[in-house]
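Appendix B, example 12.
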Amino acid sequence: MNLTAAHAAGLNRAAFLEGDSDTPAIVVAGVAVHAYVDVEDARFVVSVHLDTGEVPNELVSARETVPLRITVNGTAIYDAD
């Protein structure tokens, strides 16, 4: 992966809200992150979709995965390369 600070900043600034989904989602660098309240389970859900086909090559690892870190209140609860 060869991601510069300037390219990362540009990807972040290009984020947008997805308007054609049943649940609220923000799309950043081709990754769709849905965040919503599930009435059936009475819980807050965060769902990450890496399969949009829009993730830039600079974010795809040699193993053809997208490295991902999920934090809650600043603490990493999931971290994968």
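The mean pLDDT is 93. Helices lie at 5-13.
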